[in-house]
């Protein structure tokens, strides 16, 4: 198969002509053309290697041979309408059930995180017979119209906030309302949700769901304070609503110590609906909603069939199973925990030398502009791809394939150190120095 039919300039020109311009490229000024990949490395059309700190989707590594082998074999044998009975779907659901608390035991397979979240909304509204949704500030839950409506990150730039959507403060103990010096930020932030519920009730409206990522990513990779989710779930349940955990970015062991990021909130907490996607199929479009018998029962009771042409087909589920096998066989959660801790330690050391890291005082546009410069420098000078996130685009995010190594972490931090040092010495780049750097 021809991998590189056109020169980079030709591909770019064709893309500009043929593809909607709202579909943006990384490094839009000088995009990278990648023609093959392996593990945590990407290769451009000249064979130059890039270290990939962006691809959380290629969870167990780009083009992992075990995954491609299983995918090709199942493709060769059978791929068929999901209304025919097949082992792969039930085997996969059974494996997912084993990774989740007992009450999350009913599964719906879909093709993208957006589809999963849209279905979660339907499930919540059908079960509760309420309409209103509470979301966290800056959240993004997907590109469907229903999800733009519950994504402040998007609706603020578009049609605005619908009357059935309510925005709670981001439980951010670094920059938010209650910070690390607060005696109990978990309870304090949960109480903001309680206040919002009271406000909703005072308008004669009712809550169907509290919808949140387990580690809000667009919000700046927020690590929620302990106790927050348990308390919010109590408030939401007593208002007759359900708790939806969006694990589209964070699931499948990406946090290392736990398989699901909501588990960071402790044994006592369990959402009513969990949505999953990105890392699930290692690049193959595969996503899912997990929920309880009661919520699924209410959805069935409306008498309307749920049919999804591609969701849960034999090839997708074979791939999903293979991803779970690789996570276990290669002990990738342990690797993520080890390399994540190492990276965090290096970055903390870096912080002691550059007090600019972790500083939150600077103006928004300045931070964004300067961050883009350092992101581009990492790409151009060191061939390292990282992303930035957060309301001010000043949080450097590391979300590589889980095979990312100690050596990779050492290299990235060495390069960031050199770039920040250079930027701080440079008279026109002094405001560059105001990023939060997280290792998850
Ligand atoms: C937290 C979260 N939820 C949902 C989605 C939507 O997933 P998809 O792009 O697969 O539709 C995304 C995508 O970026 C996401 O980050």
From TrEMBL:
Q: GO CC: one term?
A: mitochondrion
Q: Which InterPro entries match?
A: Aminotrans_3, Aminotrans_3_PPA_site, PyrdxlP-dep_Trfase, PyrdxlP-dep_Trfase_major, PyrdxlP-dep_Trfase_small
Q: Which PANTHER family match?
A: 5-PHOSPHOHYDROXY-L-LYSINE PHOSPHO-LYASE, PTHR45688
Indicate whether Lyase appears among the record's keywords. yes
Its Gene Ontology molecular function terms? lyase activity; pyridoxal phosphate binding; transaminase activity
Designated gene of the protein = phykpl
Look up the domain of life of the source. Eukaryota
Gene3D superfamilies with a match to the protein in the record: Aspartate Aminotransferase, domain 1, Type I PLP-dependent aspartate aminotransferase-like (Major domain)
Keywords per UniProt: Lyase, Pyridoxal phosphate
Query: SUPFAM superfamilies this protein is in?
Result: PLP-dependent transferases (SSF53383)
Keyword Ubl conjugation listed: no
The record's family statement is: Belongs to the class-III pyridoxal-phosphate-dependent aminotransferase family.
Q: Can you name the source organism? A: Gouania willdenowi
Designated name of the protein: 5-phosphohydroxy-L-lysine phospho-lyase
Q: Which CDD domains does the record associate with it?
A: OAT_like
Swiss-Prot/TrEMBL cofactor(s): pyridoxal 5'-phosphate
């Amino acid at each position: 198969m021809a991998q590189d039919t056109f020169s980079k300039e030709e591909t770019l020109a064709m893309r500009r002509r043929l593809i909607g311009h709202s579909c943006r490229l990384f490094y839009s000024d000088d995009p990278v053309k990648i023609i093959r990949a392996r593990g945590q490395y990407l290769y451009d059309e000249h064979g130059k290697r890039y270290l990939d700190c962006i691809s959380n989707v290629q969870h167990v590594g780009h083009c992992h041979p075990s995954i491609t082998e299983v995918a090709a074999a199942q493709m060769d044998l059978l791929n068929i309408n999901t209304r025919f009975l097949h082992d792969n779907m039930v085997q996969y659901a059974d494996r997912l059930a084993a990774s989740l608390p007992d009450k999350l035991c009913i599964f719906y397979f879909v093709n993208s995180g957006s589809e999963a979240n849209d279905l979660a909304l339907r499930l919540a509204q059908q079960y509760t017979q309420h309409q209103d949704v509470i979301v966290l500030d800056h959240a993004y839950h997907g590109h469907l119209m229903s999800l733009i409506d519950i994504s402040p990150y998007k609706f603020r730039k578009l049609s605005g906030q619908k009357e059935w959507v309510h925005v709670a403060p981001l439980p951010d103990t670094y920059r938010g309302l209650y910070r690390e010096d607060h005696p109990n930020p978990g309870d304090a932030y949960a109480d903001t949700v309680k206040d919002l519920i009271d406000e909703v009730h005072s308008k004669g409206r009712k809550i169907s769901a509290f919808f949140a990522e387990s580690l809000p990513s667009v919000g700046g990779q927020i690590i929620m304070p302990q106790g927050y989710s348990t308390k919010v779930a109590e408030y939401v349940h007593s208002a007759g609503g359900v708790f939806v955990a969006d694990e589209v970015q964070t699931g499948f062991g990406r946090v290392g110590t736990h398989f699901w990021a909501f588990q960071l909130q402790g044994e006592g907490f369990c959402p009513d609906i969990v949505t999953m996607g990105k890392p699930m199929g290692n690049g193959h479009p595969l996503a899912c909603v997990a929920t309880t018998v009661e919520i699924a029962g209410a959805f069935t009771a409306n008498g309307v069939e749920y049919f999804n042409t591609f969701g849960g087909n034999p090839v997708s589920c074979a791939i999903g199973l293979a991803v779970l096998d690789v996570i276990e066989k290669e002990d990738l959660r342990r690797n993520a925990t080890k390399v994540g801790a190492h990276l965090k330690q290096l970055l903390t050391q870096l912080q002691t030398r550059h007090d600019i890291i972790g500083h939150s005082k600077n103006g928004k546009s300045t931070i964004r502009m300067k961050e883009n410069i350092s992101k581009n420098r990492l790409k151009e000078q060191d061939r390292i791809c990282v992303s930035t996130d957060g309301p001010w685009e000043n949080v450097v995010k590391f979300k590589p394939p889980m095979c990312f190594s100690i050596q990779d972490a050492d290299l990235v931090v060495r390069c960031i150190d050199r770039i920040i040092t250079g930027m701080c010495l440079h008279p026109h780049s002094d405001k560059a120095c105001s990023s939060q750097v997280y290792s998850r």
